Amino acid sequence: MITRRSFLGSLSAVSAGLAVSDALPLKAFAKSTAASASDVTKYVKIAIGTGGHGHTYPGATVPWGAVQLSPDTGVKGWDHCSGYHWDDKTILGFSHTHLSGTGAADLLDFLVVPRVGAVKLAPSEYQQSFSHDEEVSRPGYYSVKLKDSGIFAELSATERCGVHRYTFPESKSATIMLDMTHLIEGNPQKVNWAKVKVEGHRMVTGGRSTQLWSPGREIYFAMEFSRPADSIQIFADDKPVQGETSNEPRLKVVAHFHTTAGEKILVKTGISGISTEGALANLKAEVPHWDFDTVQHKAHQAWQEALGAIQVETENTRHKEIFYTGLYHTMLAPTLFDDVTGKYAGMDGKVHDLPAGLHNYSTFSLWDTYRALHPLYTLIAPEKVPDLVNCLIREAEQSPGGVPIWPLQQKETFCMVGYHSAPVVAEALVKGFQGIDAKAAYKVFRKRAMVDDYRGLGAYRKYGYIPCDVEEENASKTMDYAYDDSAVAAIAKAAGEQQESEQLHKRSKNYRNLYDKETGFIRPKYTDGHWAGPFAPNAISVSRKWRDYTESNAWVTTFSVQHDPNGLAELMGGKQALEKKLDDLFSADSTQPPDMPPDVAGLVGQYAHGNEPSHHIAYLYNYAGVPEKAQKRLRSLMETMYDNKPNGMQGNEDCGQMSAWYVLSALGIYPVDPVSATWDVGTPLFDRATLEVGNGKTLTIETKRSSADAAIVKSVTFNGEKHEGLTFEHAALAKGGKIVFEMV
Q: From CA 542, how far away is CA 567, in angstroms rounded?
């Protein structure tokens, strides 16, 4: 039996994922995967986020799995970052790696294309039409009918393997093609190298390196068919290749079959970041059989255990569907990236052996996920926290680029500003997680904070801010470095470096150096100290030289003081001044300049819920002394920024951060400053929620309402005693207990 503790701790269970929208017919579960009354996977609607700009994928994966086996409907344009978009009418095929909700694009490795008829090598010719009416998605399983060929495709996954089951019509010209040129942007020139080897009539192995968002990353595979192919061809640049191997960069492999009506051919693929031998070892260890139903059953079990960490009670099915789909999204990244042998590809390009019991991970969207996703793990997946944090420390030690920024398959993308692996590590240390070497952590983060001249850090240390004539995105970088100073100060304290901790804590107040009391905004400043202008608070570029803010403007950036909200209130002139500024933010004209990125979405005034820098802002009303305003605003955001439809998400999902905001806010708590090890009080959405918080302990959050739409907190009790204040200590919640909110 898979227990939640063993699953989260070792990631040894297998699982696969998918969901449905209102338009998708939810086929009956097989008896082996029957959903019981307590099985919350039935509320997961993975179609949420596949429309609009959510950039999520609908395919099969397991919690935090290395494989995301999913259909690709397109590869061009911003809304194909995940390879799939709800509005598309054709499917290219099914590839094994995908990003969940990112604003940049990569992966889509090893596209498998089942067809009948003449061999078609061009995507415009081998794509096939489909209908959402014949598409099924649920955690552990995906299926679709390919109309042009009549093939019924089913997908499932283990941690490191994808398993396909294709039901063919009768045909003398059935094929299964592997397209090694397939990748986002549709540009095969971005394949640095590729190699394939046909090993008999049932096995193909190989790998490739690509040059996209994650430059020079390498990925390998071992693919096996459930029965011998009649023949297997290799094509390079769409021309037949003689022999059983090829090292050309633009390769395709076509396996030919004669099929009978209703014949099922399975394809199972192991992947590895190291070698084809590693991929084959993963395949043999995780799927030594040809039982597709067993794979999907175990996948479903894994999701049932993982999502069962939180049980909510409400009569509002829409809220439940949004919540559990959001919880599902929070478990799609970071992704496992090691082999069953315990070996992994390091950030230094070398192969390493993992310490016993640990894993290696990829896909850390840290600028986004430090805010709510990683804090959520400290509550409901505490067993994973040291593993993830130790991975970040190892990456910092190995990477020539320094501490992790946005690592993807052991290459650094350097995406976004700041270095927000620091708050993830600091939060774990402050919250007392064991098995983390604070001294090793401080060594690598001290270098970044104190020594490196990384993206304006030298100027930041010299001037106390980053001048707008020195560095782009200077205002946002100044604010992010101030927050990271606070985080590294906490790491220094945990490492016993008290003097430097105090120095960094003092430096974390540098945000004050860009606050203009005359306008009441954080704004760009030149080296000589004068303000850039003419100033417009909705502008992303004030200096006119480049963008001064990162996916933001002065309205939002002014509130980016998560580590010192009381200091921000003081700087503005007191709590009433902070309250007025927040009111002004939410009531301002929503007009954005033409050069503002599309990530800035979900506007309420100048507040942009679709972009992460806004996520803590409504909770700042607590620090202004008017928590009822926070509660009203939070309830409104939960109702208007999320829906149970494909286009049900404002902005990109961003590897779980958009969903983590909803999950935590719906529970009634949120970390304005994760490093503080405190949870800010919000407004709970459910009648009752029960959280497994580790070591067999549970935290229950009960809500007593005067009416169904009551959103204002009248009083709070914790373990039977009246709770004063607007925060909870993490240590108290981690011990379990019962919170009761009385709402009016």
A: 25
**Cα of 374 vs its chain's centroid, Å:** 10
Whose CA is closest to 4, among 307, 330, 337? 307
In 3D space, the residue among 313, 273, 251, 340 whose CA is nearest the CA of residue 14 turns out to be 340
Tokens matching residue 81 = 């970052």
| CA atoms of 141 and 299, how far apart (whole Å) | 8
State phi, psi for 608 to the nearest 5 degrees: -125, 95
**Beta strand segments in 92-170, E:** 93-95, 111-116, 128-129, 135-138, 141-146, 151-157, 161-168
Each residue's pLDDT tens digit, 646-687: 999 999 999 999 999 999 999 999 999 999 999 999 999 999
Residue 1 has pLDDT above 90, yes or no: no
Distance, CA of 230 to CA of 728 (rounded, Å): 65
Pull the structure tokens for residue 362. 């990829």
Cis omega (within 30 of 0) on the bond before 228?
A: no
pLDDT at 30 over 50: no
Cβ–Cβ < 8 Å for 562, 546: no
Tell me whether strands 737-743 and 697-705 are parallel, antiparallel or unpaired: parallel
Task: Kindly tell me if the per-residue pLDDT of 461 is higher than 80.
Answer: yes
Q: Which residues contact 457 (CB under 8 A, 6 or more apart)?
A: 448, 449, 481
**Which two structure tokens, joined as six digits, stand for 704?**
């007593």
* CB count in 10 Å sphere of residue 260: 10
Asked if 381 and 309 touch (Cβ cutoff 8 Å), the reply is yes
CA nearest to 638, candidates 656, 611, 605, 663: 663
- What is the C-alpha end-to-end distance of the chain, expressed in Å? 44
Q: What is the pLDDT of residues 275-285, one digit of tens each?
A: 999 999 999 99
512: its two tokens: 């004050």
- Counted residue by residue, the chain has a size of 744
Cβ pair 606, 538 in contact under 8 A:
yes
Average pLDDT over residues 494-507: 98
Residue whose token pair is 């070698």: 275
Is the peptide bond prior to 593 cis by the omega test (within 30 degrees of 0)?
A: no
What was the pLDDT predicted at 702? 98
Question: Is 305 in contact with 627 (CB distance < 8 Å)?
Answer: no
Q: Are 647 and 86 in contact (CB under 8 A)?
A: yes
Torsions phi, psi of 617, nearest 5? Answer: -65, -45
| DSSP characters over 513-533 | GGEETTTTEE--B-TTSPBPS
pLDDT band at 163 (very low <50, low <70, confident <90, very high): very high
The amino acid present at 197, given as its one-letter code, is K
Q: List the structure tokens of 688.
A: 């009752």
Tokens of 369: 């996920």
What's phi and psi for 730, nearest 5 deg?
-60, -40
Return d(Cα 302, Cα 293) in angstroms, integer. 14
CA distance 538 to 554: 6
**pLDDT value, residue 26:** 27
